Amino acid sequence: MAQLWTHAIFLVFVTGAVYAQALTGFALALILLGLIGATNLMPLTDAVNATTIIGLCTSWTFLYRRRAIRIDRILMPTVVTNAVGVVVGALLLFWLVGTAYQVLRLVLGLSIVACALSLWHAARPLPALSSPTVYALTGGIAGIMGGMFSASGPPLVYLMYRQPIPLAQIREWLMLIFGLSTALRLLLVVPSGQFSLLSLQLAVEALPIVFIVTFHAARHPPPLSPRLLKGFICVLLIGTGLSMSIGAFLEMR
Questions:
Q1: Using 50, 70 and 90 to split pLDDT, how confident is the model at 11?
Q2: Which of 29, 48, 147, 178 has its CA 20 to 30 A from that of 110?
Q3: Do 46 and 189 form a contact (C-beta atoms < 8 A)?
Q4: How many beta carbons lie within 10 A of that of residue 165, not counting itself?
Q5: How many C-beta atoms lie closer than 10 Å to residue 31's C-beta?
Q6: Helices 132-149 and 75-99 sit at what angle, rounded to 10 degrees?
């Protein structure tokens, strides 16, 4: 019975995280892993791996619904450095899992809080597009977070939402980059033996919800204004990130 409740709660967390991802283009991994880490619902490494598959399916389902995607050459530096960052982040994850699990929880919790604060206080849009160097650096940082936690969103979101680009196009670009980075992470994690049967089970359980919620969100406008939606997500992220960090710190002591 306890195991049944664990999986039921996990699916509730998935529903909220996938919906936020489809509406904003980010936050799936941060919300899902934040809630799981704060409640200690299941091993964090298994949750990260399951989140990778969930994120991959969410991104490509959303892009399939949109059909026509406007690609720009300014994305290339981001895609390349993001791929390198994913490799580095995955290697860091393998090392941390083997040496200090609570350190991993603490790092993830603090990262979630920092990302939420940066998103909350995002500056006004820039008058012109950022340089390729800025895109490349941001892609690399996002890739490291994606490789470690399958959560590459915040650095890219902070950069993209400041660009003088239509919001619909920003969502498409974010979903495209996340889809590519999650696919690469799977190619690294599965052959290394770090992908457990529980990770696969969690992902399979979540996939029907992923498709239903993403299809719905892609065809319907958000029920809240962008400002209220971002504020709600940031508050949720700060709460879960602090809870996870405090729990990990107490365990380390």
A1: very high
A2: 178
A3: no
A4: 17
A5: 25
A6: 30
Burial class (CB in 10 A: 0-12, 13-18, 19+), 169: middle
Angle between helices 226-252 and 2-24 in degrees, nearest 10: 140
Closest C-alpha among 23, 29, 25, 15 to residue 145: 29
CA pair distance 138, 78, nearest whole angstrom: 7
What is the amino acid identity at position 91?
L
| pLDDT tens, position by position, 73-125 | 778 889 899 999 999 988 887 777 655 667 777 877 787 787 777 767 665 67
Place of tokens 């306890």: 2
Exposed / middle / buried, residue 168 (Cβ in 10 Å: 0-12, 13-18, 19+): exposed
Closest CA to 185 of 147, 154, 141: 147
Q: How many CB atoms lie within 10 A of CB 21?
A: 30
Name the pTM for this structure.
Answer: 0.76
- CA dihedral for 11, 16, 17, 19, sign (positive or negative): positive
From CA 245, how far away is CA 223, in angstroms rounded? 31
Q: How far apart are CA 23 and CA 17, in angstroms?
A: 10
Is the pLDDT higher at 234 or at 91? 91
